[in-house]
């Protein structure tokens, strides 16, 4: 079995390496040893590191002892890997990549291997939205008894405080920020349901598979209403909507179409989408490495709703 050190991709190092003495820096330093330990413990043969990779995890393509392909994932600190694994375990391959093994100490997850270079974003927009809606519908199940997932309601004040602090640096947001803060408090309080959500669902999180055409990956699981997951999908490829004529009308039509196709209340989806657009826009404009132009466009999208 290969024992050569596996180095994290540059994108991951850039995203996490700002504080070498902090938890993320320590995790990056220990990562090659953690990978080697999991390879040996689970009898895995590494093939290659997924490049350019993500900003919050390392993914290594491997072969299991019987030759079956798999993917070994190490979520970075703060990503609650046990919760990701718990969600994947509950779905058990229904609409999402199947969890094969998990290690609580390192947070490592051994996953069914999908085609990492082929996501729903490779499809025309209308087809991609149709497939995305069919995929996310499968994930909306009742959380198991004793589940570890936080709820949207339980995170309300934390989310409000965080957005307010970020918004203080972007005074031009004005009334949009106030409305978003009020929505983030009010929406979970009268939610019509509590189901297990992907939590970060978008077309790029749905990859081509072998046993079924499309499967979700990379959940940030949370319990709440379906409209929260759909709001992420409304914002997918929003730049394409903005570039076309009648962008505001097109945005509202997308809300209506997705809501109706999945039996979600239009007004609640509009409200969650507005909140998500403002939250994401403010983060782009205030976070180091963010895209100010993208942030401004997200805020403009919010006004269309």
Automatic annotation (TrEMBL):
Annotated GO MF terms: kinase activity; phosphotransferase activity, alcohol group as acceptor
BP terms from Gene Ontology: secondary metabolic process
Keyword Transferase: yes
Protein name: Kinase
Domain of life: Bacteria
Keywords of this entry: Kinase, Transferase
